[in-house]
Fold:
Amino acid sequence: MGSKFLILDMFSGGGGLTEGFIRHSFDFLGHIEMDKNAAKTLETRLLYHQLCESGKGDLYRQYYCGEIEREPFIQSAKDEGIEISPVINKELSDATNDAIIHELNETLKEDHPGQKVDAIIGGPPCQSFSLAGRGKNGKKPQPHDDPRNYLYKHYLRFLREFQPRLFIFENVPGMISAKEGMIFSEVKAGCAEVGYHLDEKPHFLNASDFGVLQDRKRVIFIGWKKDDKDLSYPEFSPMERDGIVHDLLRDLHCHQAGEGEDTLQSYRPGPPSKYLKDKKLRTEDFKGVRHHAARMHNERDRAIYRIAIEKWDNSSHRLNYDELPPELKTHENISSFLDRFKVVNGRGISHAILAHLAKDGHYFIHPDLTQARSLTVREAARIQSFPDDYLFEGPRSAKYVQIGNAVPPLMAEGIAEKIERMLQLN
Structure:
């Protein structure tokens, strides 16, 4: 353990960023996540990795395939002597930070004696910075006292406490313009105050440049101690795209609205696409996949979906709400917010998968006209580059939120590779 770099994982969510660093063999001091379902998902994934590493992957297979329930699965892993880094299911706040820091310091002394935290990773929830979120709130500015605007201050507290050599902070591009740029200025000033350098201009990265079949832009801050002259922002070279969304979807069974189960389903007959094999997304060991149940839609929405799909297929045109026939319109407003329905581009890469998918599927319509429905949890997870053996905990809405909020694992893996190289060379 002492030979690996040690990471503190904050605002972990369902573990997309975490997954990338696990794949590059980083050790974790702990993971902090306030949402109970996301924390369970993270715990399940950490157990998956430890079980596989210990040659006990069959126990995870039993749980994934529904042969045992969660509590017996957890207990059986403990009985096998499997240990994972602590998942702290608490909200970061002025009232809880001291207790969380104490718990992490105790873990550091007991499990990682003599080691220091090399890096902190994570990104606070970003809904209040999201341009999409602002639009859905009638383009009204978020209140200046919205507590979500200041979650980064807890991140700074942990930087001050653990003094890692560097940190990675992920968020939506809207963070840069939030409050007319004040948030970004405060983040830079806060980093400097606790002893860290952050480049003057933000760096924007797109998941599609890391092999993810999705146009997903994010601001990725990478900061380091001000007196560390050996570190700099790494150069990320875009990967050549080697697949389309249809490559992600065609081996999954076709479902009408309301069809399918969350339990294990077989793949459709035929070989998987080259993309699925090359990116190791498909799980051959389990002979099938979980989370592929289609949500129910009323017939009016399905009629709208068919129109949207046909327009996209025939002319690559996005449906505007005012183009619908009168009998399908339910909103009086036909002069603004016309982009209410969006088909995933099966012939190329998808638009960004967002947590809003938990509320309805209008913005994430499956590209197949014969299905006329929104994406299943597994389809959304694949577009986000989560492998099929990744199990999400909680109700379906919670699964969608975890997926939509995550850093795509392939993107996280590419970032982790650069961070590992920087630490090794310096």
About this structure: The first helix runs from residue 16 to 22. Residues 245-395 form a domain with the DNA Methylase; Chain A, domain 2 fold (CATH 3.90.120). The chain has two domains: 6-239+406-425, 245-395. Residues 133-143 have pLDDT under 50 and may be disordered.
